[in-house]
Structure formats: C-alpha cells, structure tokens
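[job 0417] fold request received: NAD(P)-dependent dehydrogenase (Short-subunit alcohol dehydrogenase family)
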Amino acid sequence: MGFDLVGRVVLVTGANRGIGRSIVEEAIRRGASKVYAAVRKLDSAASLVEQFGDQVVPIHVDLEDPASITAAANQAREVDVVVNNAGVLTVSSVTDPVAFESLKYEFNVNVFGMLHVAQAFAPVLKANGGGAFVQLNSVASIKSFGDLATYSASKAASYSLTQALRESLAEQGTRVVSVLPGPIQTDMAGDAGFTEIAEPPVLVATAVFDAVEEGRFHVWPDSIAKQFGEAYQSFAEKIIEAEVQENPV
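[job 0417] inference complete; emitting structure tokens
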C-alpha cells in the first residue's frame, strides 16, 4: 500500500546539514506540510527557516540527552514520519587506546539515542495512524571496517534494533525503513577519509522517501551501497525480511 507524503508532518534529526538537510528539502519537495528540524542548537536551522519559512520548525533534540527527545515527542504530537538521521563517527581500530571511549560515545548516540527516539515517537506515530520510522544505518552495519571498528559495531547494533523495530511496530501499522548508505558527501565522510568516493546526499534523501512510499525495509541509496545490497539481497530476503518464526534458536 502506498504512503503519500503530501500533507504529512515529518521530523528529521540532525537536520541542519548533510544528509539531514537534504532529507528536509526532499520532504518539502514531495509535499510535506511541515518538517520539524531536530537539532542540538536551534540557530543551526536558521537557514532552513529562511529557505522554507514556517514549513520548517526547529526543535531541540540531542541524542545524548533523553529528556530532550521526550520533550520533542511531547511537542511534535502531529508527526507522521520520523527520520532518525543524526549520528556520530570516530576513527578508531580495536587496538586503539581510545577504542573504549569511542565505543561508548558512538553507542550512546548511534544506539541508545536511536532507541530513545524510537520509544518516544512510537506512541505519537501510532496515535496518528501508524506513519513511518526511518533509521539511517550504514553499509558498516553489515561489514566492519578496521579503522572504523567502533563505529561499525555501533551501526551493526542500530541495524539490529531497526530489524526488531520493524517487527514490533508492524502491530501499530508503522512502516520501518533501514537506510544503509556508503560514503556520502558529509563532514563525517571527510573525517573517515572518503571524500574522493563520496556521493551527493540527495541520493539518500530521494531513496528514503521512495522506500517510505513503497513500504520497503532495506534502502541502498548510492553506488557503493548498491553493491553491498546486491551481495546481501538473498540473505536479506530469506532471513531478515522473512516472517519471524516462533523460537528460532
């Protein structure tokens, strides 16, 4: 069943730049009536307000601050689509002395922060007829990279939770989408040394709402991600997206 974005209300975390900003722009292009730009600093969304006027509403969300997420869910009661885009990355191998510190930081944001967003907004989406919850994961969710070991671990965990959310939120009619990009032109890709192969964020934004409208779970938006997706497809279809069996282990 299709999901028309026209007239819908969308909330995007990490909305002020990169992929998040592109998602905001794409939501409005597709007819969303309002987009909550969820950011840590409200003034960082000023240029979006200047561009789109009152269609964009800045709202304070810090994934390291659960109280801010709860407050946002209480404020944005009319939301139909939540896109949890915000995340962090550190360059750290498993033998790096800062690996424990990096892992704690990335899990706090990429895993616990994501779960707080999901739990806070699931009742909102249910009250509004189901809607959609979109999680920005990564190709690092299914393939660990040595210099990004702790980031890869956090994204593997967030992907696992996204699968569980798909099952849990299906009962309330909420479609869940897992987006697994490769290198995208963002500050994060620059920090990881992927600038030369990174692709435009608009690819992610377009793929996100195509998947929401079509009811697809896995999204592989860019050329590198598509290579991962092609290799992963059989497993995804037969195991991840298959109907859950009772007592599988």
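[job 0417] notes: The longest strand covers residues 34-39. The helical segments are 18-29, 46-52, 66-75, 99-127, 149-170, 187-191, 202-214, 223-240.
[job 0417] exit 0
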